[in-house]
Amino acid sequence: MFAIKTTSAHDRHFQLLVAELDAFQSVLYPAESNHCLDLTTVAEDGLHCVIVTGDANQPVGCGAVLMQQDGSAELKRIYVRSAWRGKQLGEAIVQRLEKIAIAQGCDQARLETGNQQLAAIRLYENLGYRQCEAFPPYQPDPLSVFMMKPL
């Protein structure tokens, strides 16, 4: 059983999960292809974070959605600890973030992920995301996969 709740980018459990994600990605990609925005530097009125808790209220996953000036939303920092993968948590996180984006008036969700994260790419495709060109603030990167979905 798991629960998803909203949290702050400053929440220590959220930060711990993001640090695990950063460590995971640093093994897969060189520093110049790790597009890791420090969410604690983003104005909180345009950022919404969620954390997933499992047994004994332990943090097992996270994600965030960043509202953009153009009416779109960017999904950020979606991560599920390996022991909890395969339990539909990634889908639940993305769907919760999409609901938040819709409630904020966004008409499109976008994301950037790495080309080595095949399970993540499949997850996003199964949820209706399609590959697209790089979008601001990103530049094209052969190690990045850019995706979008109308909301």
TrEMBL record:
The cross-references to InterPro entries, in alphabetical order and at most eight, read: Acyl_CoA_acyltransferase, Bact_Acetyltransf, GNAT_dom
- What keywords would UniProt list here? Acyltransferase, Transferase
Q: Which domain of life is it from?
A: Bacteria
Q: Name one GO molecular function term.
A: acyltransferase activity, transferring groups other than amino-acyl groups
One Pfam family this chain carries? Acetyltransf_1
Instruction: Check the record and name the SUPFAM superfamilies matching this protein.
Output: Acyl-CoA N-acyltransferases (Nat) (SSF55729)
Keyword check for NAD = no
Q: Which Gene3D superfamilies match?
A: 3.40.630.30
Provide the N-acetyltransferase domain boundaries: 1-151
PANTHER family the UniProt entry points to: AMINOALKYLPHOSPHONATE N-ACETYLTRANSFERASE-RELATED, AMINOALKYLPHOSPHONATE N-ACETYLTRANSFERASE-RELATED-RELATED
Q: What is this protein called?
A: GNAT family N-acetyltransferase
- In its UniProt entry, the species of origin is given as Pantoea phytobeneficialis
